[in-house]
């Protein structure tokens, strides 16, 4: 029988957040070892569960959730999403502009696939959330990475973006607040990127899944409110802000210039229809989740748990000789830099494996986020302060004794 191999479309597809280092962690767990998982932004795994009202809504409406719903999602859920963005200054949308998905990840894939012909280019930040790069290559497109500057709070480098726009560029991805760096971009900087997109007729993919997880009164402004002259697709959901990643409920909102992108929007609609609908039970919680007081507010204020954990990681990392870290302004992650000469690091996957095996701490190496050099890693600061300090003790001990062979 002939041998079957994976598609060449996967040659440039990586998702090391659940990659080979995680496979080793799973093997160690099966052998009875306790591993501290700092690799995924998975709040319920760290006793950060959903508000009771969300669980109650889903339980109450479970019997009403057995059938397929509209391919764009339940009307009350989509209407709640429209109202949420209206309160943030976006006026030119209605329920027909909202698509609910099995997490925003599904909708990222749909929107990229509907856009790209072979060879089309999408501008994506580096470091990035790797789904964007993977979805672009799987669609036949080409991911072109623009630099986010660590020396400038991990903000996008405008000149680098300009230098990488070609006649094949169709869209630009902006991840704000950012994963993996935790950077929150000033509105005036985002406006510069938006103006570039308008000038070059680029669609804007606005990944704003962490828009409620912001520290120190950082000034966040939704990209959708900044222009009507090009199409903006905003991706968001309940996974992080409402701590229900396993429920898989996210959305994409289309705003701005929908007249000149009608055919593309028809493509999104076709792909959304072909998957029938997103899971219905979780959609029942959207209206309650987005209305009223937002429980995430207590977690991100200065006395809140996430804020305190952010501070622990930032301070402890910078106390380690040979490690430095820009202070995250949002999200759930830090992206520290390693002095690779001091530790002789030439392979950051090996670095991650060595940390796992020696200290039983699981992180994700920086190249897993399409960062070119083996000199960074991402750490999740979701464990409670006691456990987080234990993790940091282990990481500090590791670096005090590490030299890559």
Radius of gyration: 21 Å
In CATH's first tier, which class of the largest domain applies? Answer: Alpha Beta
Order of strands across the biggest sheet?
A: 2-9-8-7-6-3-4-5
CATH architecture of the largest domain: 3-Layer(aba) Sandwich
Q: Kindly state the mean pLDDT as a whole number?
A: 95
SSE blueprint and pairings:
Elements: H1 20-30, E1 36-37, H2 52-60, H3 75-86, E2 98-101, H4 103-115, E3 121-126, H5 130-138, E4 142-149, E5 155-156, H6 158-163, E6 169-175, H7 187-199, E7 203-207, E8 231-237, E9 250-256, H8 262-274, H9 280-283, H10 286-290, H11 296-300, H12 305-318, E10 323-324, E11 333-334, E12 337-338, H13 340-343, H14 348-359, E13 361-362, E14 364-365, E15 377-380, H15 385-400
Parallel strand pairs: 1-13, 3-4, 3-6, 6-7, 7-8
Antiparallel strand pairs: 2-9, 4-5, 8-9, 10-12, 11-15, 14-15
Helix pairs in contact: 4-5, 4-8, 12-15
Protein architecture, described:
It is a single chain. This protein is an alpha/beta fold. The protein folds into two domains: 8-49 and 298-400, Alpha-Beta Complex (Aspartate Aminotransferase, domain 1); 52-290, Type I PLP-dependent aspartate aminotransferase-like (Major domain) (Aspartate Aminotransferase, domain 2, 3-Layer(aba) Sandwich). It contains 15 helices and 15 strands. It has helices at residues 20-30, 52-60, 75-86, 103-115, 130-138, 158-163, 187-199, 262-274, 280-283, 286-290, 296-300, 305-318, 340-343, 348-359, 385-400, and strands at residues 36-37, 98-101, 121-126, 142-149, 155-156, 169-175, 203-207, 231-237, 250-256, 323-324, 333-334, 337-338, 361-362, 364-365, 377-380. The strands form four sheets. An eight-stranded mixed beta sheet has the order 2-9-8-7-6-3-4-5. Strands 11-15-14 form a three-stranded antiparallel beta sheet. Helix 5 links the parallel strand 3 and strand 4. It is globular and about 60 Å long. It starts with 19 loop residues before the first helix and ends in a 5-residue tail after the last helix. The model has no long low-confidence stretch (mean pLDDT 95).
């Amino acid at each position: 029988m002939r041998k079957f191999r994976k598609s060449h479309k996967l040659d440039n597809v990586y998702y090391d957040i659940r990659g080979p280092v995680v496979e080793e962690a799973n093997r160690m767990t099966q052998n009875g070892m306790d591993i501290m998982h700092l690799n995924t932004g998975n709040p319920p795994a760290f006793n950060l569960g959903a508000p009771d009202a969300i669980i109650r809504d889903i339980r109450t409406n479970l019997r009403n959730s057995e059938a397929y719903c509209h391919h764009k999602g339940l009307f009350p859920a989509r209407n709640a999403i429209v109202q949420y963005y209206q309160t943030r200054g976006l006026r030119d949308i209605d329920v027909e502009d909202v698509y609910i998905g099995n997490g925003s990840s599904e909708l990222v894939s749909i929107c990229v696939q509907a856009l790209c012909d072979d060879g089309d280019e999408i501008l994506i930040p580096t470091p990035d959330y790797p789904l964007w790069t993977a979805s672009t290559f799987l669609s036949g497109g080409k991911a072109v990475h623009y630099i986010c500057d660590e020396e400038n709070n991990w903000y996008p480098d405008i000149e680098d973006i300009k230098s990488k726009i070609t006649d094949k560029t169709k869209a630009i991805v902006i991840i704000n607040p950012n994963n993996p760096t935790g950077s929150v971009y000033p509105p005036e900087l985002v406006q510069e990127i938006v103006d570039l997109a308008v000038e070059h007729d680029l669609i804007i993919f606005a990944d704003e899944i962490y828009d409620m997880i912001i520290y120190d009164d950082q000034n966040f402004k939704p990209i959708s409110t900044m222009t009507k002259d090009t199409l903006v697709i905003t991706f968001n959901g309940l996974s992080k802000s409402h701590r229900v990643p396993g429920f898989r409920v996210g959305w994409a909102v289309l705003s701005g210039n929908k007249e000149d992108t009608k055919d593309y929007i028809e493509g999104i609609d076709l792909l959304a229809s072909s998957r029938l609908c997103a899971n219905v039970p979780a959609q029942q919680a959207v209206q309650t989740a987005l209305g009223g007081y937002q429980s995430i507010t207590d977690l991100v204020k200065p006395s809140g748990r996430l804020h305190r954990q952010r501070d622990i990681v930032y301070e402890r990392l910078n106390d380690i000789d040979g490690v430095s870290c820009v202070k995250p302004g949002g999200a759930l992650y830090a992206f520290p830099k390693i002095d690779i000469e001091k530790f002789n690091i030439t392979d950051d996957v090996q670095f991650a494996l060595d940390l796992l095996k020696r200290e039983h701490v699981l992180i994700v190496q920086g190249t897993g986020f399409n960062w070119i050099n083996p000199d960074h890693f991402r750490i999740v600061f979701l464990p409670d302060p006691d456990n987080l300090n234990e993790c940091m003790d282990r990481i500090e001990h590791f670096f005090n004794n590490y030299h890559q062979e």
